[in-house]
Amino acid sequence: MDEDADLDELRERKRRQLEKKAQQEEAEQARQEQADMQKKAILRKVLDSDARERLERIRMARPDKADRIEKQLIQLAASGRIQQKITDEQLKEILAKSQSGSRDINIERR
Description:
Elements: H1 2-46, H2 49-61, H3 63-78, H4 88-99
Helix pairs in contact: 1-3, 2-3, 2-4
């Protein structure tokens, strides 16, 4: 009987741990979704439709670059440095500036 009680206690403890872990994962997912919604709302405010489309195409090809540009745009918006919506042409300029120096590869032979 003692073994049954110990076994039941272990099962109950494991069940509680699993429930707690599931709740934590759910909360983390909700926080992530909230952050994504805020990010998209800010980008809708600062980018015109053509610029948003370009950024989405970049995301398909180079997700890391799109994330970097989004973070940069959000920081500019948060600091109040964006006065009007960024057009596709302005986004191209931002992309060109961010790309300079990032593609330099030097190979030296010895």
